[in-house]
Specification:
The complex is a heterodimer of chains A (441) and B (221). Chain A contains seven helices and twelve strands. Chain A has 441 residues and is an alpha+beta fold. Chain A has three domains: 147 residues, no CATH class; 83 residues, Helix Hairpins, CATH 1.10.287; 149 residues, Heat Shock Protein 90 (2-Layer Sandwich), CATH 3.30.565. In chain A, α6 runs antiparallel to α7. The longest helix of chain A is centred in the middle third of the chain and has 51 residues. Chain B has two domains: 120 residues, 3-Layer(aba) Sandwich (Rossmann fold), CATH 3.40.50; 90 residues, Winged helix-like DNA-binding domain superfamily/Winged helix DNA-binding domain (Arc Repressor Mutant, subunit A, Orthogonal Bundle), CATH 1.10.10.10. A five-stranded parallel β-sheet of chain B has the order 2-1-3-4-5, sandwiched between helices. Chain B has a four-stranded antiparallel β-sheet with strand order 6-7-8-9, with helices on one face. In chain B, strands 10-11 form a two-stranded antiparallel ribbon. The longest helix of chain B is centred in the middle third of the chain and has 15 residues. The chains are: A alpha+beta (441), B alpha/beta (221). At the A-B interface, α3 and α4 of A face α1 of B.
Chain lengths: 441, 221
């Protein structure tokens, strides 16, 4: 279950409020009782002294409605005994307050309740003044209640206030949650963090960073899909036109030629689809292929062997000119595609009788892979752009996918390798150099 | 009829050129915008129509079109492109294109649209071109004289078509050659004369009039 911050704060704050209330109320109550006891004890004693000096009718026993001695709203009862214990005076109609041995204050049980009694020995006899404890307690409680009333009102008000303050304090969070809820793949603009408290601002900053990344990834994806759809249209257009031409061709020679071009068109479309799939697989979201140590020269030998027939077909001399036995850590399949694309490009764009040399060079610091051809090369101002997806070199007779170098660059990036273009050895053609970060042999 | 095709994709360009040639068009094909601009400024009067791809290297299709219209060139322009978004189509037409065809398309539709555009630019409502008792249909490559179908070869028809584009206008031998033959096509020095001779034989000797030192025109039969 999700615990809410509001509940948590309430859980921690409410006991504090209650505790504060209790901590205030209980000592107050105890103090009031103590003070009241002291006060009334003095009142009892004063009354006893007063009685001892008073003239009173001997043997008077008032009826229950006419209590002789009233304090100021305080009900006191009193009686006087002589030295033999006979009642000389009593202010109440009941049986006498029991006599206790020792002088001073005492608590006795009389008339079915507890009484506080002061026993004052005088020359006239024993003066006793008593007050019901119940009455004292009531008075004490009343005073305590009066003292605590503001607190009793304040506590619930404070509780309400704390609840409101918590809500108020959490409002920015709710506001951010609302803003996040309104975001979707089509609207990923940053959440406004103006006027937000620092704590929430940090969260919003992090969220905005994430939104930004997501937005970039999504728009790259969208751009790629749009580009891919556009690029697929060209070979499809060519195919459809070529098929229509083949349909129309009546003479066998023309038909054969038309079918031949149609086949080339199909090969081109397949190549493009293949490259698109490769690129899609290389996307970071598609999951990482395992990296492991491998010998680059072995890989180069394999790939060169794969392309040898194609090169021979075009009368191009393809070979491995240097193969240092060095190791790199990488994804074998991806590296094959990388080198394959570079060689494929070199073959595609080089004229017959060109040379393509592959080198695997391991020195103390780095490992590099070079593909050097004697083809037409790439103009300086185009060298950056050829790595863009779907970019094709101007006036090339070949209709490639426009993805070969983009894929190569992507793979190089995944291996933290650098890929650079320069003039070929001897000033003609093109040299592609892939430099791996360190020699891990 | 001679068309200029500006298309950078070699396979598509070649197929369109071959296909249109089958339909009796003469197609000059360039692969970038600068070359297209160059061809238009030098041979402009002779092109009946420009087939324009938008994604051209060096000079993009729309820029070329804008330049063309700014310089007052009224040549009909048909855009051939893979960009099918509404905004692209509107931008294309607003830049001065006469029609817009999205790839991939059928050759038949391309041919039909080319004919429609040329017809419209000549201010005709029907695809038939009539001049007196002479009538031709550029779509079906048929010609009639007094409602009798005349059997013409492709070149003969093209020659008659060229002469009838602006009926009564005089076209020089060079102009006729330019309309009948594309770049790099070998033209025998007497080719036009041979076709003219055949036309006269089939339509009557006085149908084509030779303005000495100027060229040829069709006489209203």
């Amino acid at each position: 279950m999700n615990s809410s911050i509001r509940k948590r704060l309430t859980f921690w704050l409410m006991p504090v409020l209650l505790l504060t209330g209790t901590a205030f109320a209980v000592p107050t109550w105890l103090n009031v009782h103590e003070e009241i006891d002291e006060l009334f004890d003095k009142v009892l004693l004063d009354a006893a002294y007063a009685l001892s000096h008073a003239n009173y009718a001997q043997g008077v026993k008032p009826d229950s409605n006419d209590l002789a001695l009233h304090g100021d709203g305080i009900d006191l009862v009193s009686q006087i005994r002589d030295s033999e214990g006979r009642i000389l005076f009593q202010s109440h109609p009941f049986s006498p307050i029991p006599q206790v041995g020792k002088p001073g204050y005492d608590t006795v049980n009389w008339q079915n309740q507890a009484w506080r009694v002061v026993n004052l020995k005088t020359d006239k006899g024993l003066v006793q003044v008593a007050q019901a404890l119940q009455e004292r307690r009531e008075t004490a409680n009343e005073i305590t209640l009066h003292v605590l009333t503001p607190l009793l009102i304040l506590l619930p008000a404070l509780t309400l206030w704390v609840g409101w303050a918590i809500g108020r304090g959490l409002a920015p969070l709710a506001q951010v949650a609302d803003a996040v809820a309104h975001r979707n793949p089509h609207s990923l603009d940053p959440i406004p963090d103006k006027g937000l408290p620092a704590e929430v601002s940090i969260l919003v900053g992090a969220l905005n960073g994430l939104l930004n990344q997501l937005n970039q990834a999504l728009s790259a994806q969208r751009q790629f899909t749009a580009d891919a759809a556009h690029e697929l249209r060209s070979p499809l257009t060519a195919l459809s036109l070529q098929a229509q031409l083949a349909e129309r061709a009546t003479e066998p020679d023309r038909r054969a030629l038309a079918l031949q071009t149609l086949r080339q068109g199909i090969a081109r479309a397949s190549h493009l689809v293949q490259q698109l799939l490769t690129l899609a697989r290389l996307d970071p979201e598609a999951g990482d292929s395992p990296f492991k140590p491998l010998f680059l020269d072995d890989l180069a030998r394999d790939v060169v062997a794969d392309f040898a027939p194609l090169a021979a077909n075009r009368h191009i001399d393809l070979g491995l000119s240097r193969a240092d036995h060095v190791r790199v850590t990488g994804a074998e399949e991806a590296l094959r595609i990388l080198l394959g694309n570079l060689i494929d490009n070199a073959i595609r764009y080089s004229p017959a009788d060109a040379h393509i040399d592959i080198s695997v060079i391991g020195d103390t610091k780095t490992v590099s892979l070079e593909v050097n051809d004697t083809g037409p090369g790439i103009a300086l101002d185009e060298r950056d752009r050829v790595f863009d997806r779907f970019y094709r070199v101007l006036h090339s007779a070949e209709s490639g996918s426009g993805l070969g170098l983009a894929i190569a660059k992507r793979i190089a990036e995944q291996h933290q390798a650098d890929i650079t273009l320069s003039d070929g050895d001897g000033g003609m053609g093109l040299k592609v150099i892939v430099t791996f970060p360190e020699n891990r042999a | 009829m001679r068309l200029l095709l500006a298309e950078d994709d070699p396979m598509i360009g070649q197929s369109i050129r071959d296909g249109l040639q089958l339909d009796g068009f003469v197609v000059d094909w360039v692969q970038d915008g600068e070359l297209a601009k160059h061809a238009l400024s030098n041979v402009s009067g002779e092109y009946a129509l420009l087939l324009l791809d938008l994604g051209l290297p060096r000079l993009a299709g729309l820029e070329l079109l804008t330049l063309l219209r700014k310089s007052g060139n009224p040549i009909p322009v048909l855009i051939l492109t893979a960009r099918d978004a509404l905004s692209d189509r509107i931008a294309g037409l607003n830049s001065g294109a006469d029609d817009y065809l999205v790839k991939p398309f059928a050759l038949e539709e391309l041919v039909a649209r080319i004919h429609a555009l040329i017809r419209r630019s000549a201010g005709r409502g029907s695809s038939d071109i009539a001049y007196g008792a002479l009538r031709i249909n550029p779509l079906s490559h048929e010609a009639w004289l007094r409602d009798t179908l005349i059997d013409l070869s492709a070149r003969e028809f093209a020659l008659l078509h060229a002469l009838l584009e602006q009926p009564g206008a005089v076209l020089s031998r060079t102009q006729l050659e330019e309309r009948l033959y594309g770049w790099g096509q070998e033209v025998a020095s007497n080719a036009i004369d041979v076709h003219l001779h055949n036309l006269r034989r089939k339509l009557g000797a006085d149908i084509i009039f030779n303005v000495r030192g100027v060229g040829f025109k069709v006489v209203k039969p």
